[in-house]
Write a structure and sequence with these properties.
about 375 residues, alpha+beta, Immunoglobulin-like, Glutaredoxin, 3 domains, 5-stranded mixed β-sheet, 4-stranded mixed β-sheet, 13 helices, globular
Length: about 375
Amino acid sequence: MPMYKLTFLCFLLCSLFSNAQNDLKTNTFKIDGKLIGKDTGRITLSYWNNIDKKQIENTLIIHDGRFEFDGSIQEPVIANLRGNIKSNSEQDSSYVEFYLEPSLIKISLPNNDFKKLKIVGSISQNDFEELEKQKSIVYSEMKELDLAFSNNYKYFIKDKNNDVLLKQRDSILKCYVPFKEKLRIIELSFVVKNPNSYISGRKLWEQTRFTSIDSISLLYSALNKNIRESVHGKQIALLLKGQPGFPASDFTKTNSFGKMISLASFKGKNIVLLDFWATWCQPCRANNPHLIELYNKYNNSGFEIIGIADDDERQKEWKQAIKMDNTGKWNQVLQGLDPEDNLRVKFGVLIVPTKILINKDGIIIGRFEGIDDMLLDKQLQEVFGK
C-alpha cells in the first residue's frame, strides 16, 4: 500500500478513535468518593439516566472509607446518595441530593451528616449552591412564619374542619406571598446573569407557572443554545409553542369509541377547542355543562371540541365520566403515557383545566387556564359573530 494511503488511513482511524473518546467523555461521569468517619458499610447512588430513560440505582460496599461510581448521562441530573438511612425522609442525615453531571466528580461525605457533603467537579452543583446562598437571606426571614405554619399544621392535620385553624392557616399562607415573590425575583435574576447554566434552564422551567409567558419567552431566547436544547429547555419550547400565534402541533389518537382521529383532519373546516381535563379534576367536570352549551351554540357553524384526558391509567373511569357528564357529543382522547407522544407535553399544558383554541388555518388563537371561561366566551363570540 502506498505510504500516503497508509498515512491517510492511520489519520482516519485516529480521528474516529479520538471522536469516540470525546463522545465517551461527553456522556460519562465518574464519582471518586470518600466517607469521613467510617471505613466500611454500604452506599447507594440513585439518578435518572436520561440516555436510557430509566431510573438507575447502584449500591456499593465501602472499602477503607472510599467508593467509586461511574455511568452515562447526557446532561446534569439530580442524584442522591444514601447510606444507612433510618427513615424514608429526605431529611435523614444519611441522605443527600446533588447535581450529577458528565465529568469526574470528587465527593467528601461526613458519615454523621451527608448534608454537609463537599463536591468538586460539578459545575451545576456549584451554580445551585450559589443560588441557594442568595436565597438563604429570604429563608432566614421566613423562619418565624415557617414555625407558625408548622405549629398550625400539627393541629390542622388532626382536625381539618376546624374553622379557627382553617382561618389561621389561610392567614399564614397569605403571609408567604411577599417572600415567594422575593425568591422568584432572585431566581429570575440568576437566569439573566447565568445564561450558560443548566440551573438557569431548570429554574426558568419551574417559574413558568408564576411568571408571564412574555417574560419567559424573553429569558428563554437569551439562554445558551445548549441550555435551550436541554430537557427543561425543550419543555419551555413546547410551552411557548402552545401559545397563541404558533401553529398547533398535529397528533393522531384513538377516541373513546375506538376511532382514529387527527387534528389535521379539522384544518380548513373547523374552529377546534382542545379541552385538557381529567376525571379526578372536579373544576374540569363542573365546567362541562358550560362546554355543552358552547358546543350546542356553535357546532353548526363549524365549532368542534376535542377532550384530552389525563386518564391513561384510569380508562374505565374515563369512559364512565364521559357518559355521566354527557360529553361524548365530541371527540374524547387520552393524552398518552409516552413523553414523546404526550399531548400535555406537546402543548406545554401545566395544569388542568386548560383550553386551547385553534383556527381553521391550524394556528393557536387562544389559551385559557383555569375555570373562568369569560375570555373564551368573548373570543368565540368574536370568531362566530354571535
